[in-house]
């Protein structure tokens, strides 16, 4: 599902999703396709559910997003030196 579709379908909600397609641009990770796992009214419940899923399978690209956001992207912070 595209982020615009998710925002229209679930306005003013917290969405736990699995990232299906993403790319990096200008130190941002931009998610272009996602699979919605669960939808919540508040961040606390969404975070608890996210933690439960992440504990079960750490290899998935799970995340939480607020459907009020216009773009689904995250700042990438690099730590350390590259050689």
Explain this structure.
- This protein is an alpha+beta fold.
- It has one domain.
- 25% of the residues lie in helices and 40% in strands.
- The longest helix has 14 residues.
- The chain is globular, with a radius of gyration of 14 Å.
- The model has no long low-confidence stretch (mean pLDDT 93).
Helical fraction: 25-40%
Helix/strand structural class? alpha+beta
Number of helices: 2
Number of DSSP strand runs: 4
Trace the largest sheet across and list its strands. 3-1-2-4
Order of helices and strands: HEEHEE
What oligomeric state do the depicted chains represent?
single chain
Strand content: 35-45%
Shape: globular
Cα radius of gyration in angstroms: 14 Å
Largest sheet: 4 strands, antiparallel
| Mean of residue pLDDT values | 93
Uncertain stretches: none
Distance between the termini: 38 Å
Structural domain count: 1
């Amino acid at each position: 599902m595209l982020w615009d579709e998710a925002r229209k379908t679930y306005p003013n909600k917290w969405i736990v999703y699995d990232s299906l397609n993403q790319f990096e641009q200008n130190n941002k990770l931009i998610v272009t396709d996602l699979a919605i796992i669960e939808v919540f009214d508040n961040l606390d419940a969404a975070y608890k559910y996210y933690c439960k899923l992440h504990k079960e399978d750490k290899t998935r690209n799970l995340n939480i997003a607020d459907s009020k956001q216009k773009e689904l992207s995250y700042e990438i912070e690099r730590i350390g030196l590259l050689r």
